[in-house]
Amino acid sequence: MQKLLIYISGLMFGVGVSMGGMANPAKVQNFFDVFGVWDPSLALVMGGALLVTAPGYWLIFKRGKPLFAGGFSVPTNRTIDAKLIFGSATFGIGWGIAGFCPGASIPVMSTLNPDVLIFSGAMIAGIFAAKGMMHLAAQRSAKAGQAA
Amino acid sequence: MTVIETAFTPWASLIGGLLIGFATVLLMLVRGNVFGATGVLAGFMTPSSSSDWAWRATLIAGMLTGPFAILLFTGGFPVIEVPMSRLAMIVGGFIVGIGVTYGSGCTSGHGVCGLARLSPRSIAATATFMLFSFITVYVIRHVIGG
Q: What is the pLDDT averaged over residues A66-82?
């Protein structure tokens, strides 16, 4: 039952992203091209999602716990640091260049569209590269801590 | 770089957005997790346990079926028009991967789930990536391309 509901959640997300135009780079770039061929559609995708998620989350949190887990596993970090801003700015540049974001590219990988597959492959390489760099940085700071 | 004009699709986009909303709510209700594509994918590739991998694999399987549901109802896969070159897909994809890892999230995790929880980190992240996407497209189309 739990598996089926999780599958349906993924399916709704995949249909929503596809229907909304989020997985169409032309539409994504045009959303940001306010001084050119502006297409405001994506504001409705994000707005529509928030219209459901915000009250939905509120009701579920009020309920106290999820159906099939002991508690919620939501991020608790509330600190806005340089890493968050650097990462988000970098993501924004990449999103602007390619027109795909992770949540949009994953569902449409099943269409085997070559641009989607190339973008997704490069994105996965970027994720591992960043994880590697973060790992090295953590090791270096641990060593520096020992030396001091 | 080319510019492909697209039509404003208020109803399809609004319904698509509502569906994304219901998807995030269902996952939170069932498992208590946020629906962040970055986190789901990263955890799928480097899972902490086999049960952790299983739910992520199930969710991703559902996501991948989405375009087939569109195919079933409309007779065609979702429209994917790419104005940029293959090189831009490689460079952009790599940059996206680096950014979402350092930024701990993307449009779904910060932009939908985080904003819905009024997380200060997600509000800062969303404002930052929207601004930088806007600047990037402006530079591509009106500075370099103009």
A: 94
Measured distance between the N- and C-terminal CA atoms of chain A, rounded to whole angstroms: 54
| Token pair for B51 | 């049960």
How confident is the model over B47-57, as a mean pLDDT?
Answer: 93
In a domain, B3, yes or no: no
Domain count, chain B: 1
Q: Scanning every residue of chain A, which has its alpha carbon at the shortest distance from the alpha carbon of B130? A: A92
The residues, ordered by sequence, that sit 6+ positions from B124 with a Cβ below 8 Å of its Cβ are A80, A84, A85, A88
Mean pLDDT of A9-33: 98
Give the pLDDT score at B1: 73
CB contact under 8 A, A110 and B67: yes
Owning domain of residue B139: 10-144
- For chain A, the structural domain boundaries read 2-147
Provide the 10 A C-beta neighbour count for residue B29: 18
| Nearest neighbour of B32 by CB, restricted to A72, A91, A97 | A72
Q: Are B38 and A39 a contacting pair at CB < 8 A?
A: no
In chain A, what residues touch B140 (CB-CB under 8 Å)?
29, 96-97
Tell me what the mean pLDDT of segment B118-143 comes to: 97
Quick one: tokens of A124? 């996965």
Instruction: Provide the chain B residues 28-67 that lie in CB contact (below 8 A) with chain A.
Output: 28-38, 41-42, 45-46, 54-55, 58-67
Please check whether residue B1 lies inside any domain of the structure.
no
